[in-house]
Amino acid sequence: MKLLITAATQHEIPFFTSAGENTDVLITGVGIAATMYHLQKRLQQMDYELVIQAGFAGAYGNSLTLGATVLVQKDTFGDLGMEEKGGYQTIFDIGLADKNEFPFTDGWLLNDHELVNSLWFQKVSSVTVNKVSDDEALTQQRKNTFHPGIETMEGAALHYVCLQENIPFLQLRAISNIVGERDKTKWKLKEAVENLNTELLKLINHLTL
Predict the structure, then answer these.
(1) Could you report the per-residue pLDDT of 108-165, keeping only the tens digit for each?
(2) Residue 166 φ/ψ region, left for φ over 0, alpha for ψ in the -120 to 50 degree band, beta for the rest
(3) Pairing mode, if any, of strands 23-27 and 3-7?
């Protein structure tokens, strides 16, 4: 199986610094735009049977264990819309897009590949945002709108591109912090890095044996 492992930064996947046999590594840079550009460019150059995005995530609430690795089942763009008088509406709410127009399903970018349910990871929903924040009102707004498990800055870009290109994909995320908590002493970055890379290696071995 020809795999592409992608991450926003090398810090997230330090165990994967170069391409291996049947496995390539792509560091896209942080954010939606960089991820879309570099991933799309690579997919035009090379054929892959599976794309795996690995990285960190913030968790909404305390239901997920800090340091643990989860698998994203559905994602969406969490700040693509309109904000007026303290209220937020998505592009689907205001009629700028159809929430069921491909690649969206009810406003979500679903990963319904058979691999998702066959793997051992806890499954979560996610929102992808351009700006992380410690604003409690903004955090609550996203909770009320999307009821997400986690938040990242690249995930929905992966889902969008791979769904459009009809390429199987997986989004792995290690929980480094609680959304809104900017005190890094309360984060679990070391544990997240170790767990993410251990689980990623375990996944690759599982898929290629």
Answers:
(1) 999 999 999 999 999 999 999 998 888 888 889 999 999 999 999 999 999 999 999 9
(2) left
(3) parallel
Q: What is the pLDDT of residues 45-100, one digit of tens each?
A: 999 999 999 999 999 988 899 999 999 999 999 999 998 877 899 999 999 999 99
Question: What are residue 141's phi and psi, to 5 degrees?
Answer: -60, -45
CATH number of the structural domain 3-208: 3.40.50.1580
> Which phi and psi angles does 107 have, rounded to 5°?
85, 0
Q: Where are the domains of the chain?
A: 3-208
Residue-wise DSSP of the chain: --EEEEES-GGG-TT--S-BTTEEEEE--SSHHHHHHHHHHHHHH---SEEEEEEEEEESSSSS-TT-EEEEEEEEETT-EEEETTEEEETTTTTSS-TTSTT-BTTBEE---HHHHHSSSEEEEEEE-S-----HHHHHHHHHHH--SEEESSHHHHHHHHHHHT--EEEEEEEEEETT---GGG--HHHHHHHHHHHHHHHHHHHH-
d(CA 94, CA 82): 8
| Burial readout 13-50 (b: 16 or more C-beta within 10 A, e: otherwise) | beebeeeeeebbbbbbeebbebbbebbbebbeeeebeb
Question: Are 70 and 121 a contacting pair, CB within 8 Å?
Answer: yes
